[in-house]
TrEMBL record, chain A:
This is Uncharacterized protein. It comes from Paenibacillus forsythiae.
UniProtKB/TrEMBL annotation, chain B:
It comes from the Bacteria. The keyword Transmembrane helix applies. Pfam families: Spore_permease (PF03845). Its main location: membrane. Keywords: Germination, Membrane, Transmembrane, Transmembrane helix, Transport. The chain crosses the membrane at residues 14-34, 40-63, 83-104, 119-137, 149-169, 189-210, 222-246, 275-297, 309-333, 339-360. This is Spore germination protein KB. Signal peptide: none annotated. NCBIfam families: 2A0309. It is a multi-pass membrane protein.
Length: 76, 369
């Protein structure tokens, strides 16, 4: 129920902005807005589900992991 | 935010926003992290970091003055070109987005742990998202004006906490002065500079909206000094009152510090009032970081304004704030071991490279005959 509500609200917010942008014939801006809306709906739905998802911070561990290991080996 | 180009904030408003952003969430988490690595000497780390932090602020200002009309996105694209530039811009956008989600999560975790223990985390995040979104819809100028309005209360509450806690000082708590040694102090200094000042690179998205005066740089650096001193004082106070062990093991030692305030069994239990007041700092930092993300995205994609992105972006902010960390242990671990490098990369290394390349290019431009 919560997920459906989140998707509906997200879609309503996105469509509101998209309608204004299409009316002004700003197609490029509408694409950016649509993509952000989709990302927002996906993230908000995942949060609304309450299930465990991989944290975005995990990317930091991948990117800076080797450097962190080097620092630990050098300075303890 | 469509009319952001017409919106301008004064130097004073910028300085206040800088103080809020330095103190912001660091008031809650910095004492723990610094005292974990520097022990009893964490106050030395925090105070020693102030001059370096001011240098970082100067770096941001100098870079923005090289390209006075451009935000960080335009600076990056003009220096790194049209291929590498957008890649670094996206890197910064991810930093601003995850940063704002992280600040929101910090405040939600704090409220959930200490104040509204039975309220679901998502409800707290939704309320914070609504506040941030509303502020962004009004624009940068109203945000800066509200920063002015709340500043007196913010500082008065913070200073009163420091003054009222003096009676519980125990100088034995900061001995031995060397703490965990020179390496520990240096590491603590890195944390203090990286977190408190490095994260202010979002200011480079705001500088084009500032009415520059002859004293803008002085005021900016002065606000860095004030914010850094306030933060370092909180670290010192936590050590003096709570001791090194409790400061490093408590999740939010500043809140525990506020709990110790008791004047003649008459003035007590003021910690919630103080803690709610601290929310101002986190709110402004989170809002500015999200402003930087939305403005950056709109500039990168050539949009005329960021207003159409605010509402859809609110859902992204809500979702990311919840998903960014499964629990507070994961969050603390990541902050301590990995996030610092990201802060130093984006807040110190990349701006330094940008400034160096920008200055070299400026020198290469032949002077007109």
């Amino acid at each position: 129920m919560l997920i459906v509500l989140t998707v509906l609200l997200g879609a309503a917010a996105g469509l509101r902005e998209l309608e204004l942008l299409f009316r002004k014939r700003r197609i490029g801006e509408a694409i950016v807005c649509g993509a952000l809306s989709l990302a927002g709906i996906a993230c908000a739905s995942a949060a609304a589900s309450g299930k465990a998802f991989p944290s975005p911070l995990h990317v930091l561990m991948v990117v800076y992991g080797p450097f962190n290991r080097l620092m630990v080996s050098l300075f303890g | 935010m469509d009319n952001n180009l017409r919106q301008q904030i004064s130097t004073r408003q910028l300085s206040l926003l800088v103080i809020y952003s330095i103190v912001g969430d660091m008031l809650l988490i910095l004492p723990t992290i610094v005292s974990t690595v520097a022990g009893h000497a964490s106050w030395i780390s925090a105070f020693a970091a102030i001059p370096f932090g001011i240098l970082v602020l100067w770096l941001f200002y100098a870079l923005s003055r090289l390209y006075p009309d451009g935000t960080l996105m335009e600076i990056i694209r003009s220096i790194f070109g049209k291929w590498l530039g957008p890649v670094i811009c996206v890197w910064y956008l991810a930093y601003f987005l995850l940063g704002s989600a992280l600040y929101m999560r910090e405040v939600a975790d704090f409220i959930k742990t200490h104040i509204l223990t039975d309220t679901p985390m998502r409800v707290i995040i939704i309320l914070a998202t609504i506040t941030t979104t509303y502020a962004l819809m009004k624009g940068l100028e109203p945000i800066a004006r509200s920063a002015e309005i709340f500043f007196f209360i913010f500082m008065a509450a913070l200073l009163s906490m420091l003054v009222l806690a003096i009676k519980d000082f125990d100088l034995a708590n900061i001995r031995p002065f060397s703490g965990k040694g020179a390496m520990g102090i240096a590491e603590g200094g890195f944390f203090s500079v990286g977190y408190s000042f490095g994260e202010l690179c979002m200011l480079m998205m705001i500088f084009p909206f500032v009415r520059h005066r002859s004293h803008t740089r002085r005021d900016l650096l002065l606000s860095g000094l004030i914010g850094g001193t306030m933060l370092a004082s909180v670290v010192l106070w936590c050590l003096l009152v709570l001791g090194g062990y409790y400061t490093s093991t408590e999740l939010f030692p500043s809140y525990i510090l506020a709990q110790t305030i008791n004047i003649g069994n008459f003035l007590e239990r003021v910690e919630v009032i103080l803690a709610v007041n601290w929310m101002f700092g986190i709110f402004f930092k989170c809002t500015l970081s999200y402003f930087a993300f939305l403005t950056g995205l709109s500039r990168l994609t050539g949009m005329r304004g960021a207003k159409p992105l605010i509402l859809p972006g609110a859902f992204l902010l809500f979702g990311l704030s919840y998903l960014i960390s499964p629990n507070i242990v994961y969050y603390t671990f990541t902050m301590k071991n990995y996030y610092l490098y990201w802060d130093i990369t984006n807040g110190i290394l990349l701006p330094l490279i940008l400034l160096t390349v920008g200055l070299m290019r400026r020198k290469k431009v032949p002077k007109p005959a």
